[in-house]
Amino acid sequence: MMQFRYTADEEAFRSEVRNFVHENLPAEIATRGRYDYHPRSSDQKYWMTQLCSRGWSVPHWPERWGGTGWTGVQRFIFEEEMRLAYAPTADRVGTELVGPVLYHFASEAMCERYLPDIRSGKTYWSQGFSEPGSGSDLTSLRTRAVREGDHYVINGHKTWTTEGHLADMMFLLARTDPEAKPQAGISALIVDLSSPGVSRRPIWTMDEGLSVNEFFFDDVRVPVENLVGEENAGWTYAKFLLVNERTTSAEVPHTKRDIAQLRAIAKIERKRGRPLIEDPDFRARLARIEVDTMALEYAVLRALTATGGAADQVASLVKVRGSELRQQIADLALSALGDRAFAFCAEPGGEHIMFDDGLSSPVPEYGIGLAAKAMFRRATTIYGGANEIQRNLIAKTVLGL
Amino acid sequence: MDFTNTEEQVALRDSVRRFVERQYDWDKRMAAVRSGNGVVDEHWTTMAELGWLGAGLSETDGGFGGSAVENCLLAEEFGAALLTEPFIAHVIATRMLAKIGGPEVGELIESMVAGSLRIVPAFQELAGRGDWMVIETHAHEQDGTVVVSGAKSLVEGAGKADFFLISANLGNVPALCLVKAGEIGLSTTAYRTIDNRRVADLTLHGAPARILAAGDRAADALAAGVNHGLLALCAEAVGAMSAALFATRDYLKVRKQFGVSIGSFQALQHRMSDMLIETEMARSAVLGALGYVDDPDPDLAAQWTSAAKLAVAKAGLIVGSQAIQLHGGIGVTEELNISHYYRRLHAIARQLGEEDLHLARFAKANDRKCAATVVAA
């Protein structure tokens, strides 16, 4: 029978999660999460430890590796409660990329070796996929891994490595067979980033923050045991990942949280003597975003509850709309600040400041981070598979064009 | 109708391009942006020497015989170069003063055009949220002098100001007052904007002031200043979006993925065409507004300047954001100029009133114009 609303059990589950967060997330960490620049790694590690002791740090993993056995809807509710509370995000590369690839394709030994430390938050991972010459055309990648005895020797250049400045390990795609067709000559390797020959350069983004990096590999030796699955099967694993993460890439929980935050701001800000939340123009703009988010939430729920073809089809659409909504809510939030929308505001107590202008910022406390976010959001339609590529996939796989 | 620039105007435009080429390339621009004031101190002197500070004023008003056309021409080039000098503020202040008129004010304008005096307009307040008609700052007589109290926001160029030209209420009429920088009772707090300009909050507690105009004369001067500022701002945006568009065009030709240049993909060609349509519609709206910005009918000036602002804001956000999108990851980096075009276009869309303000301003002025011409249903 069709069920269009969250069930009583699902709401009870939501309360359980909410209570846990309320009891275990320190206010200080939540405040930093609200400024939402870049999660402090100590905050992330702290929270992963809390979640791990509750058995909730990797809910989507198989139970044998520490997953919770929740339904897709429960996982969605859990993510939403985390975002609403401004809990630090996990190391997504570890929990959503490396973990799933390993338990799907890697040996038992490799799983034993790496999964527990991802689950506990002990090791931090980065993703070595894109290269300067291989963005949307990822299979053209050129980083080379040459087998030499019981090592692979890696030479190349990776870019856009998110939080690479915090990472201990990298999940790397490299070419192991230059003679084969591009997608058939790529392997997935695990690289310890403290290995000799690895160097990193930060890439500052338009929010003047540090999220991404470039990595250079100069004769980096990686043991053969670090090959994930089969040699030359790396592209299969990468494709699997892209399919796997589509519903989370819509970032509905993040947008719902941003909407809630904006409503709170709009009650404080005033326009023509009344709270901004009463202004007809503002209300209309906010309503449009809320309506689109509600529709998107149900698209994601469809994808999470259906199986097979129907789920796949809807899942391929949600990233496009989700990424656009991230931009729209960030821009409206800035508008809510009125004249303060213009001010640049460096990360308070930030660990990474590109340029210190020595000036103070007039932005009120509830506005901290909004301008930077609005700038960084220009990337949502580019990362995680640029929306142009998403549209190609939709046209091809759903519409058969 | 003739939209062709005169020879003098072409020469003026070329003088900016030469300046940018020699003294304001990208590296120099970023070095300026990262420096103490966010600008290169010598540039204002150069701008004065090259006649740019008076190019948009008639000779009667104290300039070199130009009009809003020249200011827009200059602003467009400044937009393409992402110049951070407070030229728009200069346009607003000089136009306000020119509208006030009189010999005393004439001397002030002369010095501003020469670059030896900097009068910075301060006509916005937090409560206005971009609406310059919201004035809570007030001026009143105290012991035989006039003093001003209140607060002004988004004051550009405050760090270099000799005087501030401040809108305030005098009793229940608007007034424009001159307050000396560093005066007792005046404080400024500067900060950096997301598009790398330096602006300031002004706080006034009984700061001594000189009233330059009050009542209708002040209201007209405020309107004229803002209208001219809006138009120059729009022209700046057209320059920025055009530069971003063609930089993106060049990138699409050289960037290869899937074995071909991505500019060969029809979807991207269509998008670039849409961006060009937006840019040219914005440019056209600015050209249209140039015909009405000085119209004695305030509704025509308001209607056209708001129309231009609306067209430009919409176009700027589309072109700026898609310029980033079409560059892929590198478009989001701090290093490349593309994100800086977006930051400026994003700020311009908000500057001097967002969409809701200008839609209302346009509609109100337009309603009055339409009421004059009755067409049977």
Outline the secondary-structure elements:
The complex is a heterodimer of chains A (401) and B (377).
Chain A: H1 8-24, H2 27-35, H3 41-54, H4 72-84, H5 92-105, H6 108-120, E1 125-128, E2 144-148, E3 151-162, E4 169-175, E5 186-192, E6 198-204, E7 210-223, H7 234-244, H8 252-268, E8 270-271, E9 274-275, H9 280-305, H10 309-336, H11 370-376, H12 387-398
Parallel strand pairs in A: 1-4
Antiparallel strand pairs in A: 2-3, 3-7, 4-5, 6-7, 8-9
Helix pairs in contact in A: 1-4, 4-8, 5-6, 5-7, 8-9, 8-10, 9-10, 10-11, 10-12
Chain B: H1 7-23, H2 26-33, H3 41-49, H4 68-81, H5 87-100, H6 103-114, E1 119-122, E2 138-142, E3 145-156, E4 163-170, E5 173-180, E6 186-192, E7 198-214, H7 216-254, E8 256-257, E9 260-261, H8 266-290, H9 298-327, H10 337-350, H11 355-372
Parallel strand pairs in B: 1-4, 2-4
Antiparallel strand pairs in B: 2-3, 3-7, 4-5, 5-7, 6-7, 8-9
Helix pairs in contact in B: 1-4, 4-7, 5-6, 5-7, 7-8, 7-9, 7-10, 8-9, 9-10, 9-11
